[in-house]
Amino acid sequence: MLYSIVGIDNANSLQARMAVRSEHVERLNALRDAGRLIIAGPNPAIDSEDPGDAGFSGSIIIAEFDSLAAAQAWADEDPYIKSGAYASVSVKPFKRVLP
């Protein structure tokens, strides 16, 4: 089943994000390589593709997991949580309708 993982950043999280970004992306690449990643990306803190020093306000991941518990366990290990970039993370079942 698909699950949405929505991380909400702490204020001024850019430095904490950048410190562990490669680890975060490595985990996403593993999901992609396993054919389980639908989409992933950050929410710029300002209305711009490249927010620069403004950073990001959060991230969205939609991926396939065996269960809600498995999705939650995967999300709990995200380097952005451990670095303090994320203030909170929400994991919910996701039903794909379009496309």
Molecular structure report:
By secondary structure, the chain is α+β, with helices and mostly antiparallel strands. It has three helices and four strands; from the N terminus they run βαββααβ. The longest helix is centred in the N-terminal third of the chain and has 20 residues. The mean pLDDT is 97.
Q: What can be said about this structure in brief?
A:
The chain has three helices and four strands, in the order βαββααβ. It is an alpha+beta fold. The chain is globular and about 35 Å long.
Q: Using the alpha-carbon principal axes, give the shape.
A: globular
Instruction: Indicate the percent of residues in helices.
Output: 25-40%
- The strands making up the biggest β-sheet line up spatially as 2-3-1-4
Strand element count: 4
In terms of topology, how is this protein built?
Elements: E1 2-9, H1 14-33, E2 37-44, E3 56-64, H2 68-76, H3 79-82, E4 86-94
Antiparallel strand pairs: 1-3, 1-4, 2-3
What brief labels describe this structure?
single chain, 99 residues, alpha+beta, four-stranded antiparallel β-sheet
